[in-house]
Structures are given as C-alpha cells and as structure tokens.
Amino acid sequence: MLKRIGYVLFAIMYYAGCIRKVRCDRFFCVMTHDGSDDSSVGVVISGIRKRMPGARFVCVKKADRGIKGLFDLIFRKSFALAASGTVLMDNEFLPLGYVKIRDNVKVVQLWHGTGTIKKFGHDANEGSLLMLVEKADKRITHLIVNSDYTAKLYQSAFGVGEDKVYLTGIPRTDIMFDDDIRESCIRTLLNEYPYIEGKRIVLYAPTFRDREVDNPVSGLDIDRWCEIMDSDTVLLIRMHPHVAARFDDTKLLQFGNKVINVSGYNDLNALLFAADMLVTDYSSVIFEYVLLDRPLYFLAYDLEEFRKDSRGFYEEYESFVPGPVVRTTDELIKAVNDVDSYHTVRDEFKNKFYKYLDGRSTERVLDTILR
Fold first, then answer.
1. Alpha-carbon distance 26 to 20, whole Å?
2. pLDDT interval class at 64 (50, 70, 90)
3. Are 198 and 302 in contact (CB under 8 A)?
4. Quick one: 162 and 193 in the same domain?
5. Strands annotated E in the chain
6. pTM of the predicted model, to two decimals?
7. pLDDT confidence bin for 307, thresholds 50/70/90
8. Can you give the CATH number for the domain in which 118 is found?
9. What does DSSP assign to residue 345?
C-alpha cells in the first residue's frame, strides 16, 4: 500500500512537471539493478556524453532507497522524468504504470540480462504485480536485444510488439571483446588478491533464490572441495548481490587462500576475465562468460525444487545449458578435473544468443536512440 501511495505522489509531481518542455538532451536513467559505469545504461551514458557534451542525466539507483531517496524520487526526479526526451532502463520502473509518457519521448529498455534461463516479467509475475508491470511496460518504445532468439523471449516477457524490438546487441558486452580492458581488469584484480596469480581460478557464482535472502547458503560443500582440490586451485565465491551482505564468510578463514569471498568486489567482469572456469546454476552470467570459450559447470543441486517453486525455465534445463550438469560437490570435482569436451556446445550456444560479435553494440544503440 505504501508503495502505491508513493507511485501516486510520483505521478502527481510528474504531471506538475509537464508544464516544462521535453528536452532531447535530458535523460532519465533507471539503474536499479546495476548502477555501475560498466552496466548497459552506464555504458550508454558514457557514449551519449561523447556525442552530446551538454547532455544531462538524472539517475535512479538501488543505493537511493530509504526515506531520503524516496522523497528525492517523488519531489525532484519526477520533474526530471517529465522533461526528459529519453528514458534508459536496466530494470522495471513501476511508477511508469501511473503516468502517461509525453509524445516523442523514447523509453529504452536495456534490461540487465544478456539472455535468460529463467522466465521473468509477464511470463513469471502474477496478480496485481503483473497488472502493474504490464501497464509500465506499455511505455516501452525500444526493447534492446542481442539475437533473434532473445527477441522472441523478451517480446513475451515485456509484452511488446515486434516493431519495438531493436536487435543491436547489448552494450555491456562490448567490454568482453576489448583485450586491453580485459588485461587491465585482471591486473587490478590481482593487485587486490596477489596470492591468486598463477593459480587455477574457479569462480562460483550461484543465482538468487528468494528463500535465501535472509539466510544465504551455498550448494557447494566447501569442506569437501578443499579436501580434494590441491593448493594450486583457488575458489572465488561470488554471491548474488541480493544476498551477499548476509553471507557469513567467517568459516572460510579456515581454508586460507584456497577459498575467497569476492562478493564485495565491484567488477564482475574482472572476475569473469580472471576465472579459468565458471561454476553456476541458473544465473544469466553464463551469457557473458561463454564469449571467453572457457569451461562452464552447472551445480544444479536443487533442480527439481527450483523448477517447481521458482519461475520456471524457457527450455529444458539439462539440454539447454552449455556445460555438464552435476548435483553434488563430488560430481562437480570430477567434472572440473576431467578433460573439457564442450567447445562445440559453447560455440553453438554463443551463436544462438549473439548476432554481433564485434564489440560495437553500444554504437548501434546510440545510432538507434539518438537519431
């Protein structure tokens, strides 16, 4: 109820702000999933600044939550939205369901996921939330996607027509094709964790589970992992941002430098660049990592439960993911130590989800929204 009241107040102030003209050099940016410069919205903002030096940006970020942030959103940022010629989003922005966007304003959904395993949006939400999401998504004028396959999924998830889908590639993936940036990111990471240099680096990045918000758990038996793995292998644990703050890593101290919690490290790309292999479950991080053509392993210890209780999958999980699916830590250890035989599978997966492999997606997005 309190959220609804906030949305109504936002709408009232928005309409008050409509006395001002819409400015093509004003941008309203929703960055509630990833507020970093490396996010798709962040990368696009950087590109706009180069093309339009006088452009101004007002951003809504996850860090703005709280009473102060709420007042700022309602009484200042609502005015900024009313005068903005372009809205850039990496997430749903439900207040849009309470306002009518002005003529010729572009609402660009850059969604934070390069691809998806799990159903989301209109395909997963229910009840009053679904109704509000549907109203908000009607404002979308540009839905940015990565491939023909993704376009079909996202059309369904956002409820938009084919005429609003733009196959440009995802801006945040451009960094994956830049060797100089990759080396710089790795060097910065090694400066902070010098003891992992020269080791076989395994990155464990499990997905978000609603039931783990207050009590994060790991499907990986770390004691067993450290018992079997030699000292030349280091395990980096990257918990989902929604649960990372509540993850108790004190028990990891007993393992020394064999296991390191890197959940607080801000640059996910650096972790991906440095990792010799990735262990995950249902996370969309695989869509970036597959570009590096390195082994992926899927520790789906709760597959049946997750399939039943969560949003569900768009395709049959075991045949969809580009790597071996295991259920236990012992099975994972065996798979990690076996010869990698999934190069062709990864290549097919990559070509399914990427139309462009040139690192110029940001340019295409800018050409599309600024013309």
1. 12
2. confident
3. no
4. no
5. 23-31, 56-61, 84-89, 106-109, 142-145, 165-167, 200-204, 233-237, 259-261, 277-280, 296-299, 325-326
6. 0.91
7. confident
8. 3.40.50.11820
9. H
Give the model's pLDDT for residue 212: 53
Task: For residues 11 and 153, state if they share a domain.
Answer: yes
Encoded tokens for 326: 């295991």
Domains held by the chain: number: 2
pLDDT band at 216 (very low <50, low <70, confident <90, very high): very low
Question: Are residues 17 and 81 in contact, defined by beta-carbon separation less than 8 angstroms?
Answer: yes
Spatial distance between the Cα atoms of 333 and 225, rounded to a whole number of angstroms: 7
Q: What percent of the chain has pLDDT over 90?
A: 77
What are the backbone dihedrals phi and psi of residue 55, each rounded to the nearest 5 degrees, phi first?
-65, 145
211 pLDDT higher than 70: no
In this structure, the answer to whether residues 237 and 278 fall within a common structural domain is: yes
Half-sphere exposure (Cβ direction) of 280: Cα atoms closer than 13 Å = 27
Q: Do both 153 and 12 map to the same domain? A: yes
Residues 68 and 123 in one domain: yes
Report the pLDDT value the prediction gives residue 243, as an integer from 0 to 100: 58
| Domain carrying residue 227 | 176-353
pLDDT in the model for residue 244: 53
Alpha helices in 98-246 (DSSP H): 127-137, 148-158, 179-192, 222-228, 241-244
9 and 57 in a single domain? The answer is yes
Looking at the structure, tell me whether residues 187 and 317 fall in a common domain.
Answer: yes
Q: What is the CATH number of the domain that holds 344?
A: 3.40.50.12580
Question: Do 364 and 337 have their domain in common?
Answer: no
